[in-house]
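Um, can you check?
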Amino acid sequence: MLYRLRNNFRLSIITMLGVCAIIGITPFAIFRFAQGDTVAGTVDTVIMLGIATSMVYAWITGDTRRSGFCIAVVACAGGATIAFLLGTIGLFWLYPPFITSFFLTSPRLAVIINLVTLLILMVFNIGFQSHEYMLSFVTTAIVVSSCAYIFALRNETQRLRLEQLALLDPLTGIKNRRAMEQELNAAVAFHQRSGLSYALVILDLDHFKRVNDDHGHAVGDEVLLDCAQIILKHTRKTDQLFRFGGEEFVVLLPGVGDYGMRTVMRNIHQILRRDLKSPGGPVTASYGVALLQDDDTRDTWFERADEALYQAKGNGRDQVVVAGESGSSV
């Protein structure tokens, strides 16, 4: 529970608002019912239940976008309704929704929600005792919303950058193991829906430890960079390259069958053997390849490719082995 709150900013905001709604609005609803103001008490109850229900939905489904949007709309609509029922004092309830809407949904949607709320208040003259009151409230609401917009936009930009960095290998700049797992899951799911064929390639640079030992890790890093660039240059834009770890790389090839996979691997094998070099000479690689089967999961698919890689290394390295076949298969 605490892990989800620490790692999901929008869920933490939704949870905070849900708890505040239950603790903060419930006493007002009870008080208004006790005073005989059934309408205001009912509105408070609906607002509280709407926010609490959205919070529970977010926790159960993990869908913080829909629940955040619903809370923003419910809070602003509820605030406007309270202003209609109670007059000027009810307008103060709108400042929290105007701010938190930028953290519950996208900045663009939050601007729309806030502007629509302000327009409704102005057109129907809800809660304003005079034009001066209206001008003062609208001006302060716009200032508050503008500050929240700038902060939310900056926060969203930083969050997207961090998410992108979390999926990239810092040395080569290509996608990392975490990104690979996500893409393999997506490939398996899409194959089950559409039948699109996929090939998975795991390649391991042969005797790479010697490069680091003989020439230093800086040279080893250059070889890894060169390897990534060579593969990227000679694969399609739809293909995806990942650094699995150390000197291991993974290539995901969508839309290729057995013949296409063998053609691609023959090409990559020859080009790396020809172009990848270290100060000590050419650097070769061993390859394990597996076509995605109908009954495969991500793990079984990867395991079959990994077993083929170990066969390639055990058979003398610098060769391609396709899962289910013995010896060099390409």
Observations:
- Residues 131-166 form the longest helix (36 residues).
- The chain has two domains: 2-166, 177-322.
- Residues 2-166 form one domain.
- The two ends are 50 Å apart (CA to CA).
